Amino acid sequence: MGDVGGSSGKDSTKRIESKKTNEVQELKDNLLSRYSGYITNLKHEFSRKKKKEKLPKEAKKILLAWWNIHFKWPYPTDADKVALAEWTGLDQKQVNNWFINQRKRHWKPSEEMQVAILDGLYEPLHE
């Protein structure tokens, strides 16, 4: 008789665990059916590569014109950047980033310019 009571307790525990498992699965299924479209959209959004936003052609023409005039030393002053931003309709950060990228991709200071830069850097040490 002790075995019957013991196995009955085990059966009861198994039924409770099974019921909990079913409730959890039902909840998961309910949430999944309710939000799966939203989750799919989020996954798609995150997996998509961010498109490069290109600058307007007219803005690039203006920046390139400044670049060509100042090719030997293409470092616009803050005042130049403000003016370029106004003329192009870009913000100053975009103007600044354009010049950083342009110098990295298309500009190498001449040897004499490099020497002048180095002389300027080391001059205070010799004084």
TrEMBL record:
Which CDD domains does the record cross-reference, listed alphabetically? homeodomain (cd00086)
Against SUPFAM superfamilies, the record matches this protein to: Homeodomain-like (SSF46689)
Gene3D superfamilies (alphabetical)? Homeodomain-like (1.10.10.60)
User: In which residue ranges is the amino acid composition biased (Basic and acidic residues)?
Assistant: 11-22
* Entry GO CC: nucleus
Task: List the stretches of this chain annotated as a DNA-binding region.
Answer: 47-110
Mainly localized where?
nucleus
Task: Give the span(s) annotated as Disordered.
Answer: 1-22
Homeobox domain span: 46-109
- A Pfam family for this UniProt protein? ELK
Q: Which domain of life is it from?
A: Eukaryota
Q: Does the keyword Nucleus apply?
A: yes
Keywords for this protein: DNA-binding, Homeobox, Nucleus
| Location of this chain's protein in the cell | Nucleus
**Stretches assigned to the ELK domain:** 26-46
Which molecular-function annotation in GO is an example for this chain?
DNA-binding transcription factor activity, RNA polymerase II-specific
Q: Which InterPro entries does this chain map to?
A: ELK_dom (IPR005539), HD (IPR001356), Homeobox_CS (IPR017970), Homeodomain-like_sf (IPR009057), KN_HD (IPR008422), TALE_homeobox (IPR050224)
What PANTHER family does this protein map onto? HOMEOBOX PROTEIN TRANSCRIPTION FACTORS
Family from the record? Belongs to the TALE/KNOX homeobox family.
Question: What is the protein's given name?
Answer: Homeobox domain-containing protein
